[in-house]
């Protein structure tokens, strides 16, 4: 999203089927830069097979407490993520959130439910799902 030509936030996601190909893009970049690729995969699979996975949703600090048409910018972004997930044909939107975070609260407001607890990067996360179709 942008406001008067300035980006206020971004959301990034993908269908589960393409998750492993994301590593291929990094490998190509490493080869082009003539840098040795890491021994481990850059992308750790997180999406379940029937999900469109919301990997990132963030709003700039200056825009976090601003609204447009009586909705917060993160609400607009989350709504768009649901729309993109619906267009992908997947049955669910999935995401991992830190317990108690703003994103966890936002996802709960939209009706996402916790399906499992995970440890990612040695930190506790909740895996949330939202039924699309």
Task: Describe the secondary structure blueprint for this structure.
Elements: E1 2-3, E2 6-7, E3 9-15, H1 21-32, E4 51-59, E5 67-68, E6 71-72, H2 73-88, E7 92-97, H3 102-110, E8 113-120, E9 123-131
Parallel strand pairs: 4-7
Antiparallel strand pairs: 1-2, 3-4, 5-6, 7-9, 8-9
Provide a short characterization of the protein structure.
By secondary structure, the protein is of the alpha+beta class. The protein has helices spanning 21-32, 73-88, 102-110, and strands at residues 2-3, 6-7, 9-15, 51-59, 67-68, 71-72, 92-97, 113-120, 123-131.
Please give a structural write-up.
- The structure is a single chain.
- The chain is α+β, with helices and mostly antiparallel strands and 133 residues long.
- The chain has one domain: 3-Layer(aba) Sandwich (Aminopeptidase).
- The protein contains 3 helices and 9 strands.
- The strands form 3 sheets. It has a 5-stranded mixed beta sheet with strand order 3-4-7-9-8, covered by helices on one side. The protein has a two-stranded antiparallel ribbon with strand order 1-2. It has a two-stranded antiparallel ribbon with strand order 5-6.
- A hairpin with a 2-residue loop joins strand 5 (67-68) and strand 6 (71-72).
- 21% of the residues are buried.
Summing up helix and strand content along with how strands pair, one would put the structural category as alpha+beta
Main beta sheet: 5 strands, mixed
Strand count: 9
By DSSP (H or I, 4+ residues per run), the number of helices equals 3
| Rg calc | 16 Å
Percent of sequence in beta strands: 35-45%
At the first level of CATH, the class is Alpha Beta
Task: Say what the CATH topology is.
Answer: Aminopeptidase
Tally the structural domains.
1
**Side-by-side strand order of the widest sheet:** 3-4-7-9-8
Distance between the termini: 25 Å
């Amino acid at each position: 999203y942008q406001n008067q030509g300035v980006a206020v936030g971004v959301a990034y996601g993908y269908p589960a089927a393409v998750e492993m190909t994301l590593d291929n893009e990094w490998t190509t970049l490493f080869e082009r830069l003539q840098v040795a690729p890491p021994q481990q995969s850059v992308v750790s699979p997180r999406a379940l097979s029937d999900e469109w996975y919301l990997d990132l949703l963030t709003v700039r600090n200056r825009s976090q407490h601003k609204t447009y048409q009586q909705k917060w910018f993160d609400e607009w972004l989350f709504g768009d993520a649901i729309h993109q997930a619906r267009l992908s044909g997947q049955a669910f939107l999935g995401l991992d959130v830190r317990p108690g975070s703003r994103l966890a609260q936002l996802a709960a407001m939209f009706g996402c439910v916790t399906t499992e607890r995970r440890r990612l990067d040695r930190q506790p996360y909740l895996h949330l799902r939202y039924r699309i179709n």
